[in-house]
Amino acid sequence: MHIDQGNMILNLKCSEKEEVTDLQKEIIQFFKDNPNPKDEGKNSIQEWADKNGHDKHEVEEAIYKLVTIFVEFLTNGRANEKGIEEDDVDAEELKLGIEIELEHTTDPETAKRISLDHLAEHKKSDYYTRLKKMEEEMNRELGKNDL
Q: End-to-end CA distance of the chain, in Å?
């Protein structure tokens, strides 16, 4: 997940009274720079916390908050509300949706999740075909050859 996307999710999920903290932003960057870090030892979360003057318990709490926000993101949405899964939508439309949503994320699972939400939200099962056609028409009007 891109750092800006992580911040976007945080902003969407944090209540109006609650701001995204600098510590949460730093943790997102740490995980972006260090995928699957260890808890202790070299290049670990604890080493990073010590190096940056953060209390380990506060870092741990912030990580749990981020995980909770991400789990909510993954388990909410139109597809989950309507009980729509991958097998319930047109496979080619989902594939196109994933390709399009990968413009906004590097994670195929996140792209699939967003695609399923869009396909569940719109009554037309050809949402991404229509979107691609609209983008192509707009690009032709603007004199652009690529999407």
A: 22
